[in-house]
Amino acid sequence: MKKEFIKTIIVSYGGFFSGAEKRTLTHEGEKILVEREFYNGAFDDGKILYNGKTWSMLLDELDKLHIDEWDEAYDDPDVMDGTQWSLDIKLSDKTEGLHYWGSNKYPENFDVFMKVMEMR
């Protein structure tokens, strides 16, 4: 992953019954900026996110997860009304970003990823 070119990280996670959140992370220098969108009655609890963490620290944590080795899609069609997720990484250079998604199926280190993203 070309971490020096990452300009935006967008993570969506949730389901119809449990609510869903879309989180867009950008940065100003080392400061992490977060925009949150909620669906299905979920609400912002006012929690301060990424406290004490810089953009570089966040990217280092993500780099250790080897996200660029994930499959593009994870799908378990046998589960109905479960949990969907997506991850988009947009780059500032002219190369294509990364897009991953899943429905009721996840990469092996997804729980660690969600902890890094402070969504669990």
Strand content: 35-45%
Q: Estimate the helix proportion, in percent.
A: 10-25%
Structural class, by secondary structure, is mainly beta
Backbone shape: globular
Number of strands: 6
Report how far the terminal alpha carbons are from each other: 24 Å
Tally of contiguous helical segments: 2
Low-confidence stretches: none
Overall radius of gyration: 14 Å
Strand order of the largest sheet: 3-2-1-5-6-4
Report the sheet with the most strands, covering strand number, pairing sense and barrel closure.
6 strands, mixed
Element order: H for helix, E for strand: EEEHEEEH
How would you sum up this structure, described in words?
With 120 residues, this protein is mostly beta strands. Helix content is 14%, strand content 39%. The chain has two helices and six strands; from the N terminus they run βββαβββα. β2 and β3 (31-39) form a beta hairpin. The chain starts with 5 loop residues before the first strand and ends with a helix.
Describe the structure in brief.
It contains 2 helices and 6 strands, in the order E-E-E-H-E-E-E-H.
Write the layout of secondary structure elements.
Layout: E1 6-15, E2 19-28, E3 31-39, H1 55-64, E4 73-75, E5 83-91, E6 98-103, H2 110-116
Parallel strand pairs: 4-6
Antiparallel strand pairs: 1-2, 1-5, 2-3, 5-6
Properties at a glance:
mainly beta; six-stranded mixed sheet; 6 strands; 39% strand; globular
